[in-house]
Amino acid sequence: MRRKKLFSYVAAAMLAAGLGAVVMPTAASAHGAMMVPGSRTWLCYQDGRNPNTGAIEPKNAACAAAVAQSGTTSLYNWFAVLRSDGAGRVSGFLPDGQLCSGGTGGPYNFTGFNLARNDWPVTHLTTGKTIGIQYNDWAKHPGTFSLYITKNGYDPTKPLAWSDLESTPFDQTTNPPADGGPGTDAGHYYWNATLPSGKSGKHLIYSVWSRSDSTETFYGCSDVVFDGGNGEVTGVGNGGTTTPPTTPPTTPPTTPPTSTPTTPPTMTPTTSPTSNPGGTGCSAMYNITGTWSGGFQAEVMVHALSAPIGKWTVNWTFPGSQTVTQLWNGTASTSGSLVTVKNASWNGTVAAGAYTTFGFLGTGTPPATVNNLACSTA
């Protein structure tokens, strides 16, 4: 019998030094998605996440269909619709019908979000109006955001093709300010954009975030309807309407957070990635791949950032009495709840932008997240 899978994502946030008494930031890959107007992965995450248990339980029919095809990991990783080799490429790089998933070459399966349906969660807008765009900054990096809109006559019941989009973006901005984050659901980049005139009915806004310090590129589909709305969202949860802030903050925070939270929140994902100025090093992602009574199986992805690495070390602490009983593709040592894993002889070298993985079996209650997950090249 196949084990029931529950996926979660934790981005690397802290690097233990010495005996663990001192912590300092470590690098993290960029991740993010459109929040206003909300992308399919963001709004389906809002629709499906149980605030009490963290489980993904979609209520919207389109979100449920996407999860049925791509699995719950697609929503626990709503911010990772990316291609590490994108380099800002659009038409001709991603095949028609695969625009919303970023093709099939990313780290996760988002193909369910390509489904041609008329019942995705939708943001209500007014043509020609200036709105406050919000784009989640799960990890911060410099780059350019480009927003495209579908042509008049767009049919959401047909697979999205490049020919459905206007050939040039209606809005483009580079290195916008940010409020909050990184590594939180609420943190985001923000800027103002004027929506195209002459639009009515259902449309789709296609976002492309191209990093300037890497070839990593993020793609996203935001379903909208031009009906005189002011950013209201319908189709999430039980069909209610939510209204986002109408005006973004006028100035970014002047003082960044001085420390990383020591206790992660209860919902997935939790820990906050940070980045060093050079953008080099590695980051780690943790997810549960199988659970059973009294035990679980997990996988950790080790990503090299903007430069290749020759070795890596990943550490974390379990939130409870969990223990590692078996580990592969690495060498593990433990001290209480602290687990340290170093690369095996064959997988220490990782090319820039690429990743390797290791897995393990554990005992105890399956932890949807782990604390203080960190990756270093020591």
Amount of beta strand: 25-35%
Tell the overall outline.
globular
The CATH architecture of the largest domain is: Distorted Sandwich
Annotation, overall tally of beta strands: 22
N- to C-terminal distance: 40 Å
CATH superfamily of the largest domain: chitin-binding protein cbp21
Q: In angstroms, what is the radius of gyration?
A: 20 Å
Short structural description:
The chain has 378 residues and is mostly beta strands.
Overview of this protein structure:
The structure is a single chain. With 378 residues, the chain is mainly β. The chain has 2 domains: 15-27 and 273-376, Sandwich (Immunoglobulin-like); 34-242, Distorted Sandwich (Coagulation Factor XIII, Chain A, domain 1). Helix content is 6%, strand content 34%. It has 3 helices and 22 strands. It has helices at 40-48, 61-70, 73-76; strands at residues 15-17, 22-24, 34-36, 82-83, 122-125, 130-136, 143-149, 171-174, 178-179, 188-194, 201-211, 217-226, 233-236, 240-242, 282-292, 295-304, 313-317, 323-328, 330-335, 338-343, 355-363, 371-376. The strands form 5 sheets. Strands 4, 5, 7, 8, 11, 12, 13 and 14 form an 8-stranded mixed sheet that branches. It has a 4-stranded antiparallel sheet with strand order 3-6-10-9, with no helix packed on it. A hairpin with a 2-residue loop joins strand 15 (282-292) and strand 16. The protein is globular and about 65 Å long. The two termini are 40 Å apart.
Structural features:
378 residues; mainly beta; Immunoglobulin-like; Coagulation Factor XIII, Chain A, domain 1; 2 domains; disordered N terminus
